[in-house]
Amino acid sequence: MFQRLAALLLLSASFVMPTHAQQQQQQPQTDLARTQLSVGLYKIDTQIAQTPQQREIGLMFRKTMPQAEGMIFVFEQPATQCFWMRNTLLPLTAAFVADDGRIVNLVDMQPLTENSHCSEEPVRYVLEMNQGWFAKKNIKKGAKLSGELFSATKR
């Protein structure tokens, strides 16, 4: 009888208490490698999401992000990239970026939605910034980003 009660309590606790992995996943990633990018006169301090897990979490659970900061998602090869905003609390703009640093297209994305936002052509990079950052700086489709990431791609 005692063993059944203990097993039942243990089982019910597993439904109520989140696992360590679930707790970890609800934390924003703030310890990723960084790189500096620039577009025109503007510098961007950029976190690099390059592994599948880093890309999956992205900017989820972040409550704030400095204006001159972003996250660049790096994929192994160019493809049509599509993004959504599940568990993402900040309104963001995604810049879909070709290997040479050219912005292929820009898309504003609303927080906590699962609408799909895709690149207009195959790209290897996607840069997410606070929504409105590109517009305030008058940066549009066709503008070029520069930085080590794009130099490395050319080699």
Describe the structure.
This protein has 155 residues and is of the alpha+beta class. The chain has helices at residues 2-16, 20-25, 52-57, 133-136, 148-154, and strands at residues 34-39, 42-49, 69-79, 82-83, 92-97, 103-109, 117-118, 123-130, 145-147. The strands form two sheets. Strands 6-5-8-3-2-1-9 form a seven-stranded mixed sheet. A hairpin with a 2-residue loop joins β1 and β2 (42-49). The N and C termini lie far apart (69 Å).
Topology diagram in text:
Blueprint: H1 2-16, H2 20-25, E1 34-39, E2 42-49, H3 52-57, E3 69-79, E4 82-83, E5 92-97, E6 103-109, E7 117-118, E8 123-130, H4 133-136, E9 145-147, H5 148-154
Parallel strand pairs: 2-3
Antiparallel strand pairs: 1-2, 1-9, 3-8, 4-7, 5-6, 5-8
List the main descriptive attributes of the protein structure presented here.
alpha+beta; 5 helices; 25% helix; two-stranded antiparallel sheet; 155 residues; 9 strands
With strands numbered from the N-terminus, the spatial order across the biggest sheet is 6-5-8-3-2-1-9
Question: Can you tell me the residue ranges where pLDDT is under 50 for at least 5 consecutive residues?
Answer: 5-24
Helical content (DSSP H or I, runs of 4+): 10-25%
Radius of gyration: 19 Å
Spatial shape: globular
| Amount of beta strand | 25-35%
